[in-house]
C-alpha cells in the first residue's frame, strides 16, 4: 500500500502548493489549512519548513478513537476518511500522535491525508512522494539515488 | 449573477475599533491597485500631509488572489512622505493569501494608536496589543516577539513590521513582510510608524468554497504546468534577478560608484553567478507561488578567535545588490550581504539607502560634507563604514542623516551635489540603460522600474523615435495596471495575458469582471494618475539630474534633446490619462 511521504522537506520553499492542491482536489475548497498536508515554518521562515501530515500508522490510533467509523483503518497503514459520517467530536485529532489531523474551526470536521498522492505533482521540488510505506526514501533524480540503491542491496 | 461587494476591514487605530464594510464597485475597480485607489478616494485627504494620522494606509488584494499560481501579491496604497503624492508599493510573502483567507479584499488603517501597538486581524479576530516594549527594536527582534500574538496560526499568517527607520519616520522606511519581502519604496514604513503601529499580523484562518464548474481545476492545472514545467520562469528561480548584474555590466549599463561609471572589471566578484556559487543558501517562495524566486544568501562571519562564527540568512535580488554593491564600489559579494542585513534590521528600503550612501560618498570625496556630517569616513568598498552609516540612516542620528533619510535631493538642497544625485523620482533602480529608462522611472506612476519596461526598450531599440517609445511605455503600463489589480506577481506577465485573465475570471465565476476588464483597467489607470496629479505631481517639472546625461552606455552618450522630447510627450500623455 502506498503512502504520501514528505521525504525531502529540506527542499521546501514554503509555497503551500501541496496544501492548496489537496484542499482544491480532495476537499473542494480554496484553503491552505483544510487539507491533509499543511506547511509550517520550523520556527520562523529562516528555519525552513515542515509538513504536518499523516505518517500512516498501522494500527491507526485515530481510527480506533473515531466513534462513528468516519475514519477507518486502511490495510497497510493510514486511514480512509468519510467526512459525511464525522460528528465533529475531535477524538481523532486528540488520538493522533503526530498532530496530523486538523479539526477545522470553521466546520468542526476532521481534515487528514488519505494518501491519494494528488498533491505530489504540484510540489515544484519533489519534496513529496507517493511510495510503498517501507521503501527507502529517494527520488528518481535524487543525488542520493546511489545511496538508496545501495541500501536496497 | 450579482457581483459581490468588496469586503473591507476598516480599523480606526485612534479608537481601538474597526468595522467590516461591504462596498460596491468590484466590476469597475477590480482589486489591488484599483481597489487601493478607490479606497484612498474614500478615506484619504490629499490636502493633508502624508504622515497625518487620518491618512489611510491601505492593503488590497485582487479577484484572482489565491485562486491561481503567482496571484500572490498585495498592493499598499498611501500618500507618500517621500513625495507627498498618492503612491503604491507592492509586496509578496504570505500577505496576499492571508488576506484572502481572512475573508478580506482590503484592510484600511486610519488614525494613530495612543501607544506603540501590534494589531492582529483575521476572519474572526481583531486585537490591539500594547507593545511599548518594542520601541526602537530592529525588524528581526520585533518579528520574534510578534510570534506570541499569532501562535494559533503558525505557518498560515502574515507578519508585517517596521524597524527604527519606520518609527523615526524616514522616507526610506519600508514595511517588512514575512522576513524576506517588503513594501519597500516611497516610505510606507513611516506611515505605519506615524500610526504607532510596530507590527501587524494577518491570520489567514478561514477557507472558501470552490467555484462549481469544471473549468477552474483544469485551468489551474494548465497555468501551473506552464509556470513550472517550462522554462518560462527559469531566469527568476535560477540565478534570480541578479543575473542582470553581469549582463548590464557587459553592455556598459550597470551603475557603479554613484553612476560615475557603467562598467567595471570586478563585476565577477559581485555578479549573480558569484552569489549563486559562493553565498546562495536556499530559495523560498511567496505563498501560492511555486516558482521560488526569493534568493537567500548565507553570511558567515567570524566573531571571535578560535573559529567562532555566526551566520545570518540574507535575502538578495538585483535591485538591492546593485544599490549596495556596484553603486558603493563593492568588490566582494559577502560585503553586500552585510549591508542588506543591516538595512533589513533598520527597516530601510535597501535600494534607497544604498543609492543615498553612494551620493554621500561622492559628496564626501568632493568635500561638500565631512565626517562631521557622516560620523564615519565614507569610502567606496568600505563595508564597515557603510554598515555604520546604514545604522545612522535608520536612527536618523544627526541632522545630516535625518535629511538624507528624507531623500537624496533633500540633503543635496542643503549640502549641494544635486547634479550627481541619482534620483529618478526616488533613488534610481539598477539600470543605466539609457534615455528611455531614465524617463520611464523619473516620470512613471510608482517612480519604479516596474511601471513599464523602459530598461528593456532601451536594450531592444536603436532608433530615437520618442512617439514610439512613449507608446510602448503607455501600452506596457496598461498591461501592468491589469496585473497589479488582480494582483499578480509581475514575473508572471507572460503567463497572464488579457485572454488568460479573461478565462481565469470566468473560471472563478466572475464573468462581469471579465466582461468589463478592458474598460476597468483604463478607468483604474485614470484614477491612479488623477490621484497623483491632484496631489501635486507636475510631470512637466520633472528634471533629470546632470549625472544621468553624462552616462555613456554601449550605445554611446546620452542625447539631451531626445530626453527632452520623451519628457514632453510623456508629460502630455500623463495629463491626458489623468484628465
From TrEMBL, chain A:
Alphabetized, the UniProt keywords read:
4Fe-4S, Iron, Iron-sulfur, Metal-binding
Q: Which residues form the 4Fe-4S ferredoxin-type domain?
A: 2-33, 45-76, 77-106, 113-133
Q: Which GO terms describe its molecular function?
A: 4 iron, 4 sulfur cluster binding; metal ion binding
Record-linked InterPro entries: 4Fe4S_Fe-S-bd (IPR017896), 4Fe4S_Fe_S_CS (IPR017900), RnfB_subfamily (IPR050294)
What the entry lists under Pfam families is as follows: Fer4, Fer4_7
Give the highest taxon in the source lineage: Bacteria
Name this polypeptide is given: Putative 4Fe-4S ferredoxin
The upper taxonomy is: Bacteria, Pseudomonadati, Thermodesulfobacteriota, Desulfovibrionia, Desulfovibrionales
UniProtKB/TrEMBL annotation, chain B:
Q: Which GO terms describe its molecular function?
A: 4 iron, 4 sulfur cluster binding; electron transfer activity; metal ion binding; oxidoreductase activity, acting on the aldehyde or oxo group of donors, iron-sulfur protein as acceptor
Q: Give the source's domain of life in one word.
A: Bacteria
Keywords assigned by UniProt, alphabetized: 4Fe-4S, Iron, Iron-sulfur, Metal-binding, Oxidoreductase
Q: Which cofactor does it need?
A: tungstopterin; [4Fe-4S] cluster
The answer, when asked if Membrane is one of the entry's keywords, is: no
One protein family per Pfam = AFOR_C
Q: Locate the Aldehyde ferredoxin oxidoreductase N-terminal domain: which residues?
A: 4-206
**Does Metal-binding show up as a keyword for this record?**
yes
What family does the Swiss-Prot or TrEMBL record give for this protein? Belongs to the AOR/FOR family.
Q: Which PANTHER family match?
A: ALDEHYDE FERREDOXIN OXIDOREDUCTASE
Its recorded name reads Putative aldehyde ferredoxin oxidoreductase
State the organism of origin: Megalodesulfovibrio gigas (strain ATCC 19364 / DSM 1382 / NCIMB 9332 / VKM B-1759)
Query: What is the phylogenetic placement of the source species in the record?
Result: Bacteria, Pseudomonadati, Thermodesulfobacteriota, Desulfovibrionia, Desulfovibrionales
Amino acid at each position: 500500500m502506498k503512502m504520501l511521504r514528505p521525504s525531502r522537506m529540506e527542499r521546501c520553499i514554503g509555497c503551500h502548493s501541496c496544501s492548496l492542491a489537496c484542499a482544491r482536489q480532495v476537499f473542494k475548497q480554496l484553503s491552505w489549512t483544510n487539507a491533509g498536508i499543511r506547511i509550517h515554518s520550523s520556527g520562523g521562515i529562516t528555519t525552513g519548513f515542515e509538513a504536518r501530515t499523516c505518517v500512516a500508522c498501522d494500527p491507526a490510533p485515530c481510527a480506533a478513537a473515531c466513534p462513528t467509523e468516519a475514519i477507518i483503518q486502511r490495510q497497510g497503514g493510514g486511514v480512509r476518511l468519510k467526512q459525511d459520517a464525522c460528528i465533529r467530536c475531535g477524538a481523532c485529532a486528540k488520538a493522533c500522535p503526530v498532530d496530523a489531523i486538523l479539526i477545522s474551526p470553521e466546520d468542526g470536521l476532521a481534515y487528514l491525508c488519505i494518501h491519494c498522492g494528488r498533491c505530489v505533482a504540484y510540489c515544484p521540488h519533489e519534496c513529496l512522494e507517493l511510495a510503498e510505506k517501507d521503501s527507502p526514501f529517494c527520488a528518481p533524480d535524487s543525488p542520493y539515488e546511489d545511496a538508496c540503491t545501495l541500501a536496497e542491496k | 449573477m450579482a457581483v459581490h461587494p468588496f469586503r473591507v476591514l476598516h480599523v480606526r487605530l485612534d479608537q481601538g475599533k474597526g468595522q467590516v464594510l461591504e462596498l460596491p464597485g468590484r466590476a469597475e475597480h477590480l482589486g489591488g491597485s484599483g481597489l487601493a485607489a478607490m479606497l484612498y478616494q474614500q478615506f484619504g485627504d490629499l490636502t493633508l500631509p502624508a504622515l497625518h494620522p487620518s491618512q489611510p494606509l491601505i492593503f488590497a488584494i485582487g479577484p484572482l488572489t489565491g485562486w491561481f499560481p503567482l496571484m500572490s501579491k498585495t498592493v499598499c496604497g498611501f500618500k507618500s512622505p517621500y513625495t507627498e503624492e498618492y503612491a503604491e508599493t507592492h509586496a509578496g510573502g504570505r500577505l496576499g493569501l492571508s488576506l484572502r483567507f481572512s475573508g478580506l479584499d482590503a484592510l484600511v488603517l486610519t488614525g494613530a494608536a495612543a501607544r506603540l501597538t501590534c494589531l492582529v486581524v483575521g476572519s474572526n479576530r481583531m486585537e490591539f496589543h500594547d507593545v511599548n516594549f518594542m520601541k526602537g527594536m530592529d525588524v528581526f527582534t520585533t518579528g520574534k516577539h510578534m510570534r506570541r500574538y499569532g501562535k494559533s496560526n503558525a505557518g498560515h499568517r502574515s507578519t508585517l513590521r517596521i524597524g527604527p527607520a519606520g518609527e523615526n519616520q524616514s522616507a526610506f522606511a519600508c514595511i517588512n513582510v514575512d522576513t524576506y519581502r517588503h513594501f519597500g519604496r516611497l516610505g510606507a514604513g513611516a506611515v505605519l510608524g506615524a500610526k504607532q503601529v510596530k507590527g501587524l499580523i494577518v491570520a489567514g484562518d478561514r477557507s472558501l468554497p470552490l467555484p462549481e464548474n469544471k473549468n477552474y481545476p483544469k485551468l489551474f492545472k494548465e497555468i501551473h504546468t506552464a509556470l513550472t514545467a517550462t522554462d518560462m520562469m527559469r531566469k527568476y528561480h535560477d540565478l534570480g534577478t541578479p543575473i542582470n548584474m553581469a549582463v548590464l555590466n557587459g553592455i556598459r549599463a550597470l551603475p557603479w560608484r554613484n553612476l560615475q561609471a557603467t562598467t567595471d572589471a570586478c563585476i565577477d566578484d559581485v555578479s549573480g553567478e558569484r552569489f549563486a556559487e559562493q553565498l546562495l543558501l536556499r530559495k523560498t517562495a511567496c505563498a501560492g507561488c511555486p516558482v521560488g524566486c526569493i534568493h537567500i544568501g548565507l553570511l558567515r562571519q567570524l566573531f571571535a578567535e578560535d573559529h567562532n562564527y555566526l551566520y545570518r540568512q540574507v535575502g538578495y535580488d538585483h535591485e538591492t545588490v546593485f544599490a549596495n554593491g556596484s553603486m558603493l564600489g563593492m568588490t566582494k559579494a559577502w560585503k553586500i550581504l552585510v549591508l542588506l542585513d543591516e538595512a533589513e534590521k533598520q527597516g530601510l528600503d535597501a535600494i534607497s539607502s544604498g543609492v543615498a550612501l553612494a551620493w554621500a560618498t561622492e559628496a564626501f570625496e568632493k568635500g561638500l560634507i565631512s565626517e562631521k556630517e557622516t560620523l564615519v569616513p565614507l569610502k567606496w568598498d568600505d563595508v564597515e563604514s557603510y554598515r555604520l552609516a546604514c545604522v545612522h540612516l535608520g536612527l536618523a542620528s544627526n541632522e545630516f542623516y535625518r535629511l538624507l533619510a528624507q531623500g537624496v535631493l533633500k540633503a543635496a538642497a542643503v549640502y549641494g551635489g544635486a547634479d550627481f544625485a541619482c534620483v529618478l523620482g526616488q533613488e534610481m533602480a539598477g539600470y543605466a540603460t539609457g534615455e528611455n529608462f531614465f524617463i520611464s522611472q523619473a516620470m512613471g506612476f510608482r517612480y519604479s522600474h516596474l511601471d513599464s519596461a523602459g530598461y528593456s526598450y532601451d536594450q531592444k531599440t536603436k532608433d530615437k523615435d520618442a512617439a514610439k517609445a512613449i507608446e510602448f511605455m503607455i501600452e506596457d503600463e496598461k498591461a501592468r495596471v491589469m496585473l497589479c489589480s488582480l494582483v499578480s506577481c509581475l514575473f508572471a506577465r507572460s503567463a497572464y495575458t488579457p485572454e488568460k485573465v479573461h478565462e481565469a475570471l470566468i473560471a472563478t465565476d466572475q464573468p462581469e469582471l471579465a466582461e468589463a476588464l478592458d474598460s476597468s483597467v483604463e478607468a483604474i489607470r485614470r484614477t491612479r494618475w488623477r490621484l497623483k496629479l491632484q496631489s501635486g505631481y507636475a510631470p512637466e517639472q520633472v528634471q533629470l539630474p546632470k549625472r544621468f546625461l553624462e552616462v555613456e552606455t554601449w550605445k554611446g552618450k546620452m542625447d539631451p534633446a531626445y530626453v527632452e522630447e520623451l519628457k514632453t510627450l510623456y508629460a502630455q500623455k500623463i495629463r491626458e490619462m489623468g484628465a
